Amino acid sequence: MNEPLVITVLVENAVFGPGLMAEHGLAFHLQAGSAGFLFDTGQSALLADNARRLGVDLARLEGVALSHGHYDHSGGLSAVWAIAPPTPLYAHPAGLLRRFARNPDGSVRDVGISPPTLQAIKACPTQLFVTKTPTEICKGVWLTGEIPRLNDFEDVGGPFVLDEAGTQPDPIVDDQALFCDTQQGLVVLLGCAHAGVVNTLRQIRQLAGDRPIHTVLGGLHLAGASATRLTRTVGALRELGIQRLGPAHCTGPAATARLWHEFPQACTGCSVGSRFVFQR
């Protein structure tokens, strides 16, 4: 397969380039030959404005994949469907549940897919494709489906719950990543890595026949990680031989600084306007 894979960051917490805007969220656009896909949609219609300024044609999308069912990864879906209806949506069914996070004072806040977005999804049931297991969304581009939680140092990254009383932990079983093989090696996109970035990358290696991982971009959800978890994550990333690492979104400033310190040659910016090109 001799065609480029072009990845453009449409939504992220920070911005790179004039005329663009940032928000707390994440959205990647993938151009795999003639096929265009979104991996996540940010939390608002902002991705549509950034896409226009970056020359990304959302009207030609062939699909949208959600990494998991949180508002900051799904809120732009209605704006996308207004431009490119009816675009197939790839998501785990647990992502459509109500989700909450506990605040420090014990109260909870809603962090799930917004009611208007849920209504739009339920209004187009034939466009929802369930991704509990590994799913190829176009030639050579895969979603992991559910990721086994195998190590003893990673967790979902916060006090996420499934009920308004804040008593039922949310395992975020819908968390999934996207990966594609290239001439350089595997390229991985992470939404928030609630399954754990190390669990995720090891699962991808297994699914891809132990091909080396070249690039990892996206949220690592290490904002509240312990020193032990950070150290073991760094060790695993070194063992995996990651050549390019773009920590973004929910990685957290302290963890991002640690990763840039540990991998100064591999780390790269991954904010709105960043673009990455690979040969397939």
Give keywords.
280 residues, alpha/beta, Metallo-beta-lactamase, Chain A, six-stranded mixed beta sheet, 7 helices, 16 strands
Write the layout of secondary structure elements.
Layout lengths: L3 E8 L15 E6 L2 E5 L6 H8 L7 E5 L5 H4 L2 H7 L5 E3 L8 E3 L5 E3 L4 H8 L5 E3 L4 E4 L2 E3 L16 E2 L16 E4 L4 E5 L6 H11 L5 E7 L7 H14 L3 E5 L4 H10 L12 E5 L1
Parallel strand pairs: 3-4, 4-5, 5-8, 13-14, 14-15
Antiparallel strand pairs: 1-2, 1-16, 2-3, 6-7, 6-11, 9-10, 10-12, 12-13
Helix pairs in contact: 5-6
Task: Provide a descriptive summary of the structure in words.
Helix 5 packs parallel to helix 6. This protein has a single domain, classed as Metallo-beta-lactamase, Chain A. By secondary structure, the protein is of the alpha/beta class. It is about 20% helix and about 25% strand. The protein has 7 helices and 16 strands. It starts with a strand and ends with a strand.
Number of strands: 16
Largest sheet: 7 strands, mixed
Quaternary structure type: single chain
Q: Mean of residue pLDDT?
A: 96
Poorly predicted runs are none
Please give a quick description of this structure.
Helices cover 22% and strands 25% of the residues. With 280 residues, the protein is of the alpha/beta class.
